[in-house]
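Ops channel
N.P.: pipeline sanity check, posting one input/output pair.
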């Protein structure tokens, strides 16, 4: 979309636009219309398999409007550009109108597109004021928009979603159908089985609306096609309307269609049938009556709440928490009572309708019902029941489930290809970077070159951070960023965690040195949905444990809970990083442990006179570019993998050698495997204890020493007693036991 808008701004089609405007001035409207037909055109609403409404493959989350003969075009432009929902706006080919796009939640089909388009048109009429009239042909999802030339083309990729407003309460909405906002579209809530029909439109208008929402595949089945035709005729529609709908089928035959229509007689198939079929085709829940809720009960009220608010309100039972849709483009945990606000909103609508019918028996009954639900206990009970509705309840594992989606303030980036798209509620994303992705970051790149002079290490660092931004756990690595002070390490991680926003989190280093997964279930819960987990510095004498490292980097299911929650499980999405001034200690010598460790040395010391005290603030000004650097790193990882460069391999190998306590002991003792020799376990351990004391090391236990020697390939035996088939001859302990 942006590519075409940029071309309109740059004058890519300027010669053609000059020509059609000249035709309009010299030859009149008819010639202008013919000339305009030769212009390129764009379907802003989405991707299509063919030029027809039924060919919609994917909706873009943008609907376009066309206004001609505006009079003061510039005044209208200013009003439109002030709207937070307008994605683009440019002068039409005639030069006397405007074309614009409105950001909406992606529509499932042409029928839903038409509903949202109508609501948007009402919003824009109010915004523009006066007697403006939109081109109603734009309501079709496949409607093409002709290109133009406008150097002042307005583009706002950060436009927020225009939400469909709730239907206004009606004084007649007092029976079982009162406030039944089916699928957010109150105007389609009516049904032939309803006791009270609050929809004041004619049967023909209701039938047209239902026909527009119906699945075109019904026209492919002869019986369904005939039944729709009979219902249309009974509802008062013209033949042309059923004929137009029938043309969506590849089986359409004009003569058969005409002949069939003429045979239809008035019958029990009517407007209610059309509405019911449309509801079924759109996967909408049953009406309250169909669902078996007895009018006036708490169950009935809970389903009214669910029907009206399920599009922006969810509940997670293991979390004992409500989740609400934030217009910033993601779901968030309810911390402000949004569930209660939703229930009170429903009650307020009920009371408004009841007040309008004051003085009638129905009004009196409705007011009594409102008074009943105004009590805290009744409202609380209704909310508890609402939480169990299928379109309200969501499992913990359903949130943030797509590991490749990275939610930003200006949309959602798919890290599989780096493309930015609109926010979608059904992605069930609870995180956001809170900044817009895109732009360059020259200060950031200069900073990286300063603190990491090796370009191969810089490239690896970008791929490693990019991999961490993806919610997959396939590499099973712990990145240890090691180095003393004044090396830019803290500034680097501050910039990364700021750019990733909610996707980054700090965790205590004790998770690596203690039995953290059992001792800290609430800390583990904080890792849910996290991509970049930064561990704080471990204690200098703390030792990293292999079991903890494996569980935190291995991708196995984690079990956790928050305060006052039940335990629940989730698949990890985080990559663990450790920022430290000293190398953490460990006694682990297994390949399984060390294959997970990547030591990234930050060894450059920046002199005090070269240190920029405001660097963190300057880098925050480039946050969008830094986020783009991370996204680019993710794409590079998917192409090139995470093979470390020689500098990191060497640094990690040196670190491993430093942590090998037994290496020095074995060298001093000259321990050599020999099937003909024998040293008892007790003698060997006594010798080891003496060596450890002399080396100022805390000795490991006898069982641990035995296990580590076996890991290194030394043969343990029970004959003639418990010990090893080895001989010794080093500088420490020259005695040999056989």
């Amino acid at each position: 979309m942006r590519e075409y808008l940029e071309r309109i701004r740059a004058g890519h089609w300027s010669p053609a636009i000059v020509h059609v405007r000249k035709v309009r001035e010299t030859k009149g409207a008819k010639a202008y219309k013919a000339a305009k037909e030769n212009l390129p055109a764009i379907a802003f609403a989405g991707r299509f398999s063919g030029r027809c409404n039924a060919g919609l493959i994917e909706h873009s989350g943008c609907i376009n409007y066309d206004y001609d003969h505006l009079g003061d075009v510039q005044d209208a432009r200013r009003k439109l550009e002030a709207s937070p929902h307008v994605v683009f706006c440019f002068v039409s080919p005639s030069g006397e109108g405007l074309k614009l796009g409105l950001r909406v939640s992606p529509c499932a089909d042409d029928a839903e597109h038409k509903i949202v388009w109508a609501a948007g048109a009402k919003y824009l009429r109010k915004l523009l004021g006066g007697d403006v009239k939109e081109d109603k042909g734009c309501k079709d999802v496949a409607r093409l928009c002709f290109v133009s030339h406008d150097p002042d083309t307005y583009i706002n990729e950060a436009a927020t979603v225009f939400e469909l407003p709730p239907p206004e309460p009606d004084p007649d909405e007092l029976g079982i159908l009162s406030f039944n906002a089916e699928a957010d579209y109150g105007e389609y809530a009516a049904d032939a089985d309803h006791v009270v029909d609050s929809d004041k439109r004619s049967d023909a208008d209701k039938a047209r609306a239902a026909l527009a929402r119906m699945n075109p595949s019904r026209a492919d089945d002869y019986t369904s096609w005939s039944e729709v035709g009979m219902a249309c005729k009974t509802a008062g529609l013209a033949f042309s309307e059923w004929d137009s709908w029938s043309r969506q089928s590849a089986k359409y035959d004009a003569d058969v269609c005409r002949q069939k229509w003429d045979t239809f007689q008035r019958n029990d198939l009517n407007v209610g049938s059309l509405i019911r079929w449309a509801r079924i085709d759109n996967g909408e829940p049953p009406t309250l009556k169909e669902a078996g809720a007895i009018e006036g009960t708490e169950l009935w009220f809970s389903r009214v709440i669910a029907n009206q608010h399920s599009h922006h309100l969810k509940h997670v039972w293991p979390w004992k928490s409500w989740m609400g849709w934030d217009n910033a483009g993601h779901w968030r945990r309810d911390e402000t009572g949004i569930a209660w606000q939703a229930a009170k909103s429903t009650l307020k609508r009920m009371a408004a309708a009841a007040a309008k019918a004051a003085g009638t028996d129905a009004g009196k009954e409705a007011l009594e019902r409102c008074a009943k639900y105004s009590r805290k206990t009744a409202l609380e009970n209704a909310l508890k029941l609402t939480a169990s509705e299928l379109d309200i309840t969501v499992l913990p594992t359903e949130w943030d489930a797509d590991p490749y989606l990275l939610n930003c303030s200006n949309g959602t980036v798919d890290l599989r290809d780096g493309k930015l798209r609109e926010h979608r509620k059904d992605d069930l994303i609870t995180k956001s970077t809170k900044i817009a992705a895109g732009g360059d970051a020259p200060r950031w790149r200069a900073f990286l070159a300063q603190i990491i002079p090796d370009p191969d290490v810089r490239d690896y660092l970008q791929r490693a951070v990019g991999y961490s931004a993806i919610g997959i756990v396939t590499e099973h690595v712990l990145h240890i960023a090691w180095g003393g002070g004044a090396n830019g390490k803290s500034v680097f991680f501050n910039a990364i965690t700021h750019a990733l926003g909610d996707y980054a989190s700090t965790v205590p280093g004790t998770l690596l040195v203690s039995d953290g997964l059992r001792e800290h279930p609430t800390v583990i819960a904080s890792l849910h949905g996290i991509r970049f987990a930064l561990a704080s510095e471990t204690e200098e004498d703390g030792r990293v444990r292999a079991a903890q490292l494996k569980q935190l980097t291995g991708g196995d299911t984690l079990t956790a809970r928050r305060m006052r929650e039940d335990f629940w499980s989730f698949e990890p999405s985080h990559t663990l990083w450790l920022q430290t001034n000293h190398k953490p200690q460990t006694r682990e010598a297994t390949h399984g442990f060390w294959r997970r460790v990547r030591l990234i040395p930050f060894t450059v010391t920046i002199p005090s006179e070269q240190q920029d005290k405001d660097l963190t603030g300057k880098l925050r000004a480039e946050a969008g570019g830094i986020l783009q650097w991370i996204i680019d790193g993710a794409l590079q990882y998917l192409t090139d993998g995470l093979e470390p460069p020689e500098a990191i391999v060497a640094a990690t190998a040196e670190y491993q050698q430093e942590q090998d306590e037994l290496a020095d002991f074995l060298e001093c003792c000259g321990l050599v495997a020999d099937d003909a020799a024998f040293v008892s376990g007790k003698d060997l351990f006594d010798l080891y204890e003496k060596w450890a004391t002399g080396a100022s090391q805390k000795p490991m236990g006898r069982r641990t020493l035995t296990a580590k020697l076996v890991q290194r390939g030394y043969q343990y035996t029970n004959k003639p007693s418990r010990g090893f088939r080895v001989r010794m001859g080093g500088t420490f302990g020259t005695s040999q036991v056989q």
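N.P.: looks fine end to end. Residues 660-727 form one domain.
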